[in-house]
Amino acid sequence: MVWWSSNVLLAASIAAMLYSCVREYSVRRYLDGFSDAIVPNTLPAEQKVKAILDWMRAEPSRANTTNPEALSTRDPEMTLAYRQLLNVCGTATNAFLNLARSSDLRVRRLLLLSPNRTTKHVVAEVLIGDRWIIVDPAFRVILKDARGHYLTRSELRDPAVFSEAAGAIPNYPREYNYDQFAHVRLARLPLEGLHLRRLLDGVYPGWDEALDWSLLLERESFFYLVLFSAATLCFLLLRVLLAWYADRRLRIPRFRLRAKAIRAGEAFFSAPEIKQ
Length: 276
What we know:
- Helix content is about 55%, strand content about 10%.
- By secondary structure, the protein is of the alpha+beta class.
- α1 (about 1-40) crosses α5.
- The two termini are about 50 Å apart.
């Protein structure tokens, strides 16, 4: 029962992984076509960012729904299709990140946290040159000082610099400061994140910036692709372990599909022996 159950689970995970591959490929094709329509590939990185923000600022013709809570906020096709989602900081940032990534920009999301570690606002970081500058897709702006110098999160931690940048944006809330921030908020996990942040910071400092967590956490199709790929690997290792245990310890004969297939192939493709 364990052997056949592992085979069924392995087959199911492989099928789910293949479906996720097709889904992720279709999403990437959709985003590539969408970004090509609004962002010319020949533009430098800074101009690409401005082109995406200009498209968002122009209030393009998008669908409306009476129940936006029912929409998938981690599906790029949804976030780009509905006006309500483009007006919320989380999904607006998600839409910006997907378009920017499809335009060959290096981007990542940044969560601005309140003193009790809850998310109060979501912005994006874009690598321009060797600096991760801050873009606020919800307000369709790149944060900069009075001299037009684009700002990073470390520069915005200075209250005077943040006040100067926020003052140039109409109705920009002053509580959206950069006193506390994160790329991944592990507090959403049970038991206060299982204290994973402290453990990961001790084992691998800078882990939250080493990978593009926004792609994994904010694109549903990519998340399921990674999930089912990991499940396929786990069930494949389990199958190998069970096969070794059955052969070496229990001495239980197994139905060897590969050996049967090889023998069938040899019998089908080899010429029959004719005895005199």
